[in-house]
Every structure is written in structure tokens, then in C-alpha cells.
Amino acid sequence: MRRLTALLASALLAGALSPLASPVLAQALPTIDKAPDAPTGPMTADEQRATLEDLAQQLQDNFVFPDAADRYAAMLRANAKSGAYANLTDPKAFATKVTADLQAVAKDGHLRMTIAEERGLPADLRSKEAMPKVDTMGLEETKMIGDVAYLRFSLFPEDPKVAAAARDFLIAHQDAKAVIIDARKHHGGGLSVMDAFLPLLYAKETMLVRMDTRASAAGDGPLPFKSLHLQPSPKSVVRADQYVEPDTRYTGLQHVPVYYLTAHYTASAAEHLAFAFKRTHRAILVGETTRGAGHYGGPIPIGKRFAAFIPVGRTYDPDTNLDWEGVGVKPDVDVPADQALDKALDLARLAGAHP
Fold this sequence. Notes:
Layout: H1 2-10, H2 45-62, H3 66-82, H4 91-105, E1 112-115, E2 139-145, E3 148-153, H5 160-172, E4 178-182, H6 192-197, E5 206-214, H7 215-218, E6 228-231, E7 237-244, E8 258-262, H8 269-280, E9 284-287, E10 295-302, E11 306-316, E12 333-334, H9 340-350
């Protein structure tokens, strides 16, 4: 499962641009380079046809749902045959239109085509309002608010330093009466950071979520995270359950209230954790319904000057078969995002904390 290792290490990253990533969302990773012999200037009809065929085949080989992949491919091939994009000789305009046509066939919060080397969030994660800017990528702030431990994330990067910083802060404040995790500006990442601090918050072994990856995209080799446990599955799928094992050395926070702050911009890996918290009833979600980008994957070179972020898997609740793709994760306490922290502090106060 070597390919799945790469996938799970960066596909939870919705904006990742490195060959097939893995589960969760938008980190600005190194981009896919254009081919050395990539054409320049306007696109020709031949280049359009070749690009569309490449994209159609990559979707059929890798997209999380084979039936949707076939419909995407049929649309792309029909449009190539009819010359539907003949007037779109500008590469960026071509990529934008192809992405819109894919979304019209079957909406997906991550699927898109861009020019190779182009950075940015998936189109479906943008809106007329700009994404909130963050100063750094990862753990933006840790502090005590009275006796409440507060952590604010913009991303779950695959960075051991960020994982250690979050864990160390919680260990240093085991006497906290509540924990607040602020994910209102959190737009993606992977599993390592959450795997580092969740054992401090759970008092017993708990299955969080299930993750199904197209077998054709998963490859071979061991799973990339200790929290993932392989499960029986159809041959077309590699199935893994994510578990949290409690840390028996540091138990001070395993029974205190946890509040998880969300906003409409909260996406991908941040939604993964919101979904896991809600499924296991370990945290109270406070804020707004999240973005709804639930399928994970990664970027693949397409043609000679494009890349496509192709979702290859889904994260879901095995008891209900439900996920958050397209609908988001609803908060337990619905308030405007800018009021979520104050509301969480009020709830913590009612639970006996003194912020």
C-alpha cells in the first residue's frame, strides 16, 4: 500500500499538489510541474482531445465511485468528440470550464482540474468571500483562558513539530477543566496531528471513522498511520478504521468537556475530526455547519500542462454509511462563527470551568 501511504499522508489535504495524495484537505504542498515538453501559448484541438482522454482515464482508474467516474469519462469524451471546448484555447479558461462540467455531472468538494504549477484551493472551497487568511500553517495559537486549554489550528500538516507542540501543550495543562479546539479557519491536512493529541482526550479505545479507498489507487505496502486498522472489504476497496488508543500516562483531560469550534470554511481534515468527535460524542461542536468536502485524494498530472485533484476515497460512519460530502457536519450548538468561542466559554463555565 505504498501509494495509499502517500495518499493518506497528503490527500486529506484538499489542496495538495503532489502525485496521488491521501485522506483530508487544502495544504499548499509542492505543485506538480508541467511536462518538460509542455506546449506554450493557446491550446490546439489535438491537445484538448489528448488532455480530456487522459483525464477521463485517470478518473475511471482512480475516482472514489466507479459509477460516477464512468459518467465523468463519458461526458469528457462526448465533449471532446463534439468540440465543445474548441473556443477555449486559453489553458486556464479550459481547466475552469472542464471543472465546472465535472461538477455538473456529480458534485464533489475536491474534484478539479488546474494548470500544473498553479496553487490554490479547490474551486468548490472558494466563495465570493475570500478564505480567511492565516499567519502560519498549522497550530496558530495555544493558551490558557482561565482554566480552559485553548488550541487554534489552520491546518493539520504532516509535521512532527506541530503534532508534538499540540500534544505537549495539553500534557503541560492536564489540570485544565475543559479543552477548546478552534477549527474555524482550519482547511485541511492529514491524520498525524490529531493522532498525536486525541489519546489525551479519550479514556477508552474508540473507533472514530471508517475510510474506504479505491484499491486501484491504494497500491501496496503498510498503512501509513498506527491509528488505521485494516478491515475486510470487497476487492475493489482498501478499508481501514481509525482508532484512538488512550494514553495511560497522561489521563488528566480524558474526562473533561471538549468543545470544537467550526465555521462554514472548516473543511476536509478539520471536518474529519468534527465528524469523529460527533460520532463518538466526545466533543460538543459549536459554530456553523462545515464546508462539506469529505472525499480525499490527491493531484495527478494530466496531459502535459495540467493537474487534476482526484478524490480516491471517502470517510464515513460504518453504522449509518453516512459521510459529510456536500452537506457538511452540523454543529451541536448552532451560532455564528464569530460568536463560537464566547459560546464555548459559556458552556465550559456551566460545566464547572472558570475561563
